[in-house]
Design brief:
The structure is a single chain. The chain has seven helices and four strands. The chain has helices spanning 2-54, 59-78, 110-119, 122-126, 156-174, 183-199, 203-220, and strands at 95-96, 108-109, 137-141, 221-225. Helix 5 packs antiparallel against helix 6.
Amino acid sequence: MEEEIRGATLPNNTTTTTNNNSNSSSNISISNATTRKLSYLSSVESNITILSGIFPFSSQITSSLSSSSSSFDNIMTDHSKVCRYCLSDDEISEWLAPCKCIGTMKWVHLSCFEQWLSFAPYSMKYSCAICSYVYRRQWKLKPYKNWHWPQFHLRITDLLGIYFDITLTYRIYRYFPRCLDNRVTFFLYASYLLLWKLVVLSRMRLNFYSNIVYDIITSICSSKVLDAL
């Protein structure tokens, strides 16, 4: 009988033990889940704190954007003019917009522009090399005390070129009456004309002599480039 009773009561004990184990495991799982949830929430909170320091929300965003835009407008208003030659925004001389270029190529200092014109090729002294706008100039005769000798800046090769051009032009003028005397003089004169056209009338030589004429004129006259219309 005792064995039967023990056998009968044994399943109840095992059932109770099983229930206790299941309850304890469920409690452990709940506690683990709670711990994970708390750690997740703390991490999210810390991330939100970090992001709030980087990206201000609501009114802070509007105020910061408005302040930054106003400061940017002030910068653009104060420092929108940059000289294309010296790359400076300081007002070292009068500002000038001599051509139709826009952006950073629009503004120049008058002193920088005049210094550049003194060394620029002839084709760039009267028109912009970028937009091809012809500069507006105002010519004025200098007082007599301000007249000076032209500064040609000629080299030995330039002097030899001038001598060659003058000699060739003189020969063409001198031998013109006799160019039709015979066949030899005709072909000789034709060769002089061809050489004169290829050398003296070339674009490079014309620009060279135009620079000389410009230097002569500017020695007694002053020119001022005006703003482009």
